[in-house]
Write a structure and sequence with these properties.
The structure is a homotrimer. Chain A is an alpha+beta fold. Chain A has one domain: YjbQ-like (Jelly Rolls, Sandwich). Chain A is 24% helix and 36% strand. In chain A, the strands form two sheets. Chain A has a five-stranded antiparallel sheet with strand order 1-8-3-5-6, with helices on one face. A three-stranded antiparallel sheet of chain A has the order 2-7-4. Chains A and B meet through strand 4, helix 2 and strand 5 of A and strand 3, helix 3 and strand 8 of B.
Chain lengths: 136, 136, 136
Amino acid sequence: MQYNVPSMRIKIPTTKHREVLDITERLNDLARAQNFCEGLCHLFILHTTAAVTTADLDPGTDLDMIDAFTGMIPHRRYRHPHNPAHVGDHILSSLIGTSLTVPIVNGRLLLGAWQRVVLIELAGPREREMEVRFAS
Amino acid sequence: MQYNVPSMRIKIPTTKHREVLDITERLNDLARAQNFCEGLCHLFILHTTAAVTTADLDPGTDLDMIDAFTGMIPHRRYRHPHNPAHVGDHILSSLIGTSLTVPIVNGRLLLGAWQRVVLIELAGPREREMEVRFAS
Amino acid sequence: MQYNVPSMRIKIPTTKHREVLDITERLNDLARAQNFCEGLCHLFILHTTAAVTTADLDPGTDLDMIDAFTGMIPHRRYRHPHNPAHVGDHILSSLIGTSLTVPIVNGRLLLGAWQRVVLIELAGPREREMEVRFAS
């Protein structure tokens, strides 16, 4: 077994309680810095109250997403001992997901016309950490 | 770094506003055409109003899925400037997900007895594009 | 094309109708048994009524997750011929997801402080099968 690329950890500061952050150009910069041209970009976020996915980011759509995700969580009497108010954050992280794999072509993420790679902050503001692996 | 396999783009025409399309055999055909036997199949859909996942497709379950996904999106006054009616489509795409990794064994996708790989169309009919990467 | 690692299938018995099972140490044991140190762990669950994701598992949070997921599925007249009561199980499996990719560092899954890899059982108790691939 041969290990192809160094592991990379990026730190992403968030500024609101809940927000959708476009991290596409951060990742493109990382691919360029690694001189990585063709393959796959594997993302993994090291948290239980944040998520990673792709999204449309027409103005206001980030706030629409936060509203919709918040509204989807049923109001229940939750058990979570640390802070029951965090239960919705944890559930959305598990549901939206913490890993994402995106193709790389010509040194950039291959995305649809309106598609962006986003970090979804569910319990900020905090500094979030994401592991990035380029694999060819 | 060595690039193992060519990138492949497939086009998938959809025929309804919302539908669940079984793409398993399309992917098996692609593995056969590439003479690809063992490894992983990475899928990525290049859109913000479609998704890729696995599903049970007993007759009628595709329509059940569409009903349930549609019913999960809260009714809010959304901001999206292009077309607020699209907000639910975008949110479901981000939530269900746009990347999927499936093992390949003996030249075919490794799936459970009733499990199929599906494209979920949320704002069709359109021609959708999916990037397919086989990695060993 | 070169195939790096053998395919591994693990069996995970579940004990309840719906539950969240921590499989992190099972996977760490598997990495150790394979002498696998650095790379990625690709997981795929071979079922349509189970899912795999990451989660916070503070005491009670597993039950909170099950409550919330159950409460999110709209009550509709579903069509599924085998057993309409299963529709929610299938939808949650497709929505939470059946594939997950986690980095491996120093022979162990790289996770956040409170983050665990979990199998979500939606129609147990059963013995579940998961395909595990380590890729470097």
